[in-house]
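Appendix C reproduces, verbatim, an entry submitted by the partner laboratory led by Prof. M.T., so that reviewers can inspect both the input and the predicted structure.
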Amino acid sequence: MKLRGILLVATGMFAGVLAVTLFSNSPRACPAIGYAYVGDVQLFFSAAPETVEACFGEGCTPELVARNSEGKWLVPQSVPYLNEPVSVSMIHVEAVTASGGRVANDFPIETESTGEYPYGFGCGGPYVFKPVQVALS
């Protein structure tokens, strides 16, 4: 009887380990959700600019950007800065300082996770844009 009990416990443990191994290594089924961030792109300048123009998309026409009430340079993802269809991953910036420093260049827009993973860490989640650093000479 003791041998039978030991065999039953060993069989149960083996079945449990096998089940955990099979289910933990199985591929996760994530929902088909594509997260998009539609907020503003913030520009940080190495020197205070006098004028700033920006736009999204290859060959776009830069438009004047106004500093907001908090003193931030925010470029909205809307007309006239964005004309559909454009995947926002670069921003074209043209800026001039009072001392004559200027820039006219395309800058990559990097993203970072919001830290929210509604369907689990392996499925990804929402993101936001990091501020774009613009060097003025």
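The first helix runs from residue 2 to 24. Additional entries are available on request from the coordinating office.
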